[in-house]
Design a protein that fits this description.
Four Helix Bundle (Hemerythrin (Met), subunit A); 8 helices; single chain
Length: 239
């Protein structure tokens, strides 16, 4: 993908994202909204620069839906896509237009603590996994195999775990308690997709193992991202 095309794609995505956030709010003087758009824009840009350097073929692959995509994944996306968008719509309606709930600004840095390691883990996963397309399919024409390097050496589904951090951070960064309602539904989608993805790849482990591994990784993620960061006294002693 040419640099100009990539830049235009990122710009269009950020503009669309801003519209989804600010249109329901009905006004543009929403500081948390602009901060969130800025964070997401920097994430898009950083991720694109990183992948352009280490895994440029994946950028091309993620811009399209390839042949062989699992039918259940298409249905999954059609059903949960609007739920993901509704998170930002509800946040704008809640915080700015109607004021349904009030969240302390002290939760904003907690949201950032969840977001940053999540997006780093997500990008790292894409950097080492040439098969990290946006839909689930067996890429037999490219010699599809299980990746066991980078974060995959420790976590079975690091990409989903990274997106889990994004999922939980959005309501905190936007200051909306009500946004957690569709967001928790989206978290369930991430868990279900992780388990189904492992099964679709014909990995010789039960689906329940994939779910167990995911939740074990979630516990580790929360511990590292929140407990160690906020409470230095809880750091494991070095031996």
């Amino acid at each position: 993908m040419k640099t100009i095309q990539l830049a235009l794609a990122i710009f269009a995505a950020v503009v669309l994202f801003a519209v989804i956030i600010f249109w329901p709010a009905g006004r543009l003087d929403w500081v948390a909204g602009w901060l969130y758009v800025g964070i997401v824009a920097m994430n898009y840009l950083g991720n694109a620069i990183y992948l352009k350097r280490v895994n440029p073929e994946l950028l091309e692959a993620r811009m399209r839906m390839s042949k062989g995509t699992k039918r259940w994944d298409i249905v999954w996306g059609v059903f949960f896509g609007p739920i993901l968008i509704s998170i930002y719509i509800i946040a704008g309606l809640d915080v700015i237009r109607f004021g349904w709930s009030t969240m302390s600004t002290l939760f904003w840095p907690i949201g950032l603590i969840l977001f940053l390691p999540g997006t780093v883990l997500f990008s790292w996963s894409m950097g080492v996994n040439p098969f990290f397309e946006k839909t689930v399919r067996i890429q037999s024409e490219r010699g599809h195999r299980v990746i066991d390097t980078g974060p995959y050496a420790f976590i079975r589904h690091p990409g989903y775990l990274g997106f889990f951090g994004w999922c939980l951070s959005a309501p905190l960064l936007l200051g909306s308690w009500w946004a957690f309602v569709p967001k928790l539904t989206d978290v369930l989608r991430v868990v279900g997709n992780a388990a189904a993805h492992g099964a679709a790849q014909e990995i010789a482990v039960p689906m329940t193992w994939a779910i167990d591994d995911f939740f074990r990784a979630v516990v580790e993620y929360v511990y590292v991202s929140i407990v160690i960061t906020i409470f230095p006294l809880c750091r494991p002693s070095a031996k």
